[in-house]
Amino acid sequence: MNTLRQLSAVSDAIVAESKRMRDLLAVVEKVAALTVPVCVVGETGTGKNLVARAIHFNSPRRNRPFVGVRCATMTEEFVKRSLVGHARRASSPFADHRQGLVAKADTGTLFIDHVAELPLPLQAQILGLVETGDFTNGGGTKPIKSDVRLITATNKDLGTAVAAGRFREDLYYWMTVVSIHVPPLRERKEDIPVLANYFLQRFSLLHGRTHRELSRRALDFLVDYSWPGNVRELEQVIERAVMRAKGWVIDLPLLAESCDRPENRLTPWGQPCHNN
Fold first, then answer.
1. Is residue 9 part of a domain?
2. pLDDT level of residue 138 (50, 70, 90 thresholds)
3. Residue span of the structural domain in which 24 resides
4. Is there a contact between 252 and 270 (Cβ–Cβ < 8 Å)?
5. What CATH number has the domain bearing residue 114?
6. Mean of the per-residue pLDDT values for the chain?
7. Strands 144-145 and 134-135, sheet pairing
8. Which is nearest to 77 in space by CA: 134, 127, 128, 139?
9. What percent of the chain has pLDDT over 90?
10. What is the rounded distance in angstroms from the CA atom of residue 238 to the CA atom of residue 182?
11. Residue 102, Cβ density class (10 Å: 0-12 exposed, 13-18 middle, ≥19 buried)
């Protein structure tokens, strides 16, 4: 088995053995030395956050702030206050929260996850930030300087969002100077065994379990499965299996139950029902 690939100075390992991921990590190492905006594209659960962190922690800004915001679960007003902050006003219910994430990321990296959900008014603010390094906080009138490197991530087709008028075309071109596509797990099956073993070791240690191993048919099942939730789903499946296993070998029935999807239910002959 080849060694696990992990970029230096990254606290969260990027575990990979496939050529596609090795090529991706080579690109990450190259763009880390630059200051251009980067957009990381991929399905949910592929590890876009880890790629963004790898870029930052292998860059000249590695000792400066890495500040992230996730747009998908926030209201427009909350995203605005989180990103750009607001001018202090005595009557404001947010009087104790003046500095936004853009200011906190100064000299470091600002990571905007689910950037396709960024409201149009805030897109204009981010455009100004990448064009001139200026932004204006809520209620403020004077531009504020902030030296940030912008990294974004999305699981949506931004070109479609631009065509539909939901995303600014000028911002789209600015922030996709470099675009990195993270392939889904089903397209890099060589990574599944090394990822599974990495998670086995990690969760056995975390939960105080003796070392666990996968049976041959359990590993075959993992490789054959389509992983619609990608690496995040594999991680959760392995953790559940480690928690539930009675012995040191994790076999197919327990693993299939841990996947907890209809297509993983076993036939009376003990074989998975799914066809991939």
1. no
2. low
3. 19-183
4. yes
5. 3.40.50.300
6. 83
7. antiparallel
8. 139
9. 58
10. 22
11. buried
